[in-house]
Amino acid sequence: MTARSDNEQWHGARMDFSKSMSYGDYLALDSILTAQHPLSPAHDEMLFIVQHQASELWMKLMLHELHAVRASVRQGAVAPACKMLARVARIMDQLVHAWDVLATMTPPEYTALRPYLGASSGFQSFQYREIEFILGNKNAAMLAVHASVPDRHARLEEELNAPSLYDEAVHLLARSGFSIAPQRLDGRWSRPTEADSSVQAAWLEVYREPSRHWALYELAEKLVDLETAFRLWRFRHVNTVERIIGFKAGTGGTAGASYLRKMLDTVLFPELFALRTQL
To answer: Among 120, 127, 136, 266, whose CB has the most other CB atoms within 10 angstroms?
Structure first.
C-alpha cells in the first residue's frame, strides 16, 4: 500500500478538502491566525496581542449570550435565561485565567513594547463597554471614546438607552405580582443602576420563600454568580496591571491601576447583595 493510499484510509478520516469546506475554512483561520501584527521587535508582543484578541472573542460570545438572556427574561422564559447566564459566568472564568498568562510578562518585557502601543488601551474596548451597559453600569460620557467610529458609537448609544438585563429582571418581578416603585419602572434607562428599597423587598420575599418563587430565586442566584465572576475578572485585571506596570499611568490616559481599583467598587445588582444581611 502506498503512503498516499494509506493516508487516505487513516481511521476513515477524510483527507481531501480541495472541493469541500474544511475545519480551517469553517473557522476562517486564515483571517484569525494572520491578524497578529507586532509593531515592536519585542518577543513578548505576540503574547500581548493574542491575549487581548482572545479576550475580545470571548467578549463577543458573552454579548451574544447576554442579549439572548435579556430577551428571554423580557419574555418570561427564565429557565433558558438561567442556562445562558451560567455560560456567561464560565466565559468570565476564562477571562480571569487569561490574565494568568499575561502575568508571565515582567515589567522590563512590557517596557520594551509599550512605546509601540501609542494611546491604544483596553479602556477603548467597545465590547467591554457594551457588556457594562447591558449589565446596568451606564455612563454616557463613555460614548465619546467611540465618536470616531460611527457604527460603534451608535451601537453603544442604543445600548445606553435600552433597559439593562437587570432592568428586565426588575420588570419581571413587577409582572410576577411584586410591588415595585413606579420610578424604578419609568423607562429612563440611561442611568446607572441604583439600589431601590422596593426591589430589595421583592427579592427578599423571593429568598424567604424560594420554593414558591423558584424561577425568580434561580434567576437571582445566577445573577449573583454572574456579578461574582465579573468582580473576579476586574480584580484579576487590576492585579495584573499592578504586577506589570505598578502605578504608572495607562497608555489610554487613565491613572492605570488606581483607576481600575476604583472600578472594583461598582455593584451591578445592589439589592441582591444587600438583602443577604436581612436573611
So the answer is: 136
